[in-house]
Amino acid sequence: QMTSYKMDGPHRGFCLVINNVKFDGSLQERKGSCKDAGELERVFTWLGLDVITYRDMTSQEIKDLMRTWQHLQDHKDRDCFICCILSHGESGAIYGKDEELVSIRMIMSHFTAKQCPQLAEKPKLFFIQACQGKEIQCPVYVESDARILDLSSMQQSISPSESIPEEADFLLGMATIDGYVSFRHIEQGAWYIQALCSKLQLLVPRGEDILSILTEVNEDVGRRADRFGTKKQMPQPAYTLRRKLIFPVPRDPPPSQHH
To answer: 151 pLDDT exceeds 90?
Structure first.
């Protein structure tokens, strides 16, 4: 039986949510993203994390923020670290509000055992809602979180496994496989984030580990995308976790019992 990460300390950990909604140039406003940010905040608070939300950050501000969190001493009393980023993106990178790209791998590399010893051997989870491709015209209510990718540039796209540090204890949950757009309902939020939040609420109380939960998220999003026939989205987790990651069952009922 595979052992589990220790997740029963007095402090679960910090969860950063970076929500980029408005951009300085030609990138469209990401309507519906505040619903996602709010939902992540509710669900991870329910799971015992201290959630801190940042809005509309430039690429430099994102890099500075990672440096700040990397050096935080408090991590040593925490079980894990989570970072969620909601933005537009390209292959292996996300956009700051200044429309400059920040590499996902670079973001994560701040939290390796070497760079952040307080989090050594603890699970570090990153959830990215961003397209890894380019804008396409979608049915009325659905917008994509990307710019159009011609096939030539898709050939050089990087897989999620190449975008995570070659170190243990990381998980990268991407809204979509590389080179594809991911969809966001302008009222109901992103398919991936909404599925992630609802599956966490359903399956954590049943004692499921994070990879089983993300597999169900894949299934949910894969099914959802089907309705238009032409536009599919398939999330894809990449990970170097060495153990099962099981969140302790919260005492309170899940925040969106009304779903």
So the answer is: no
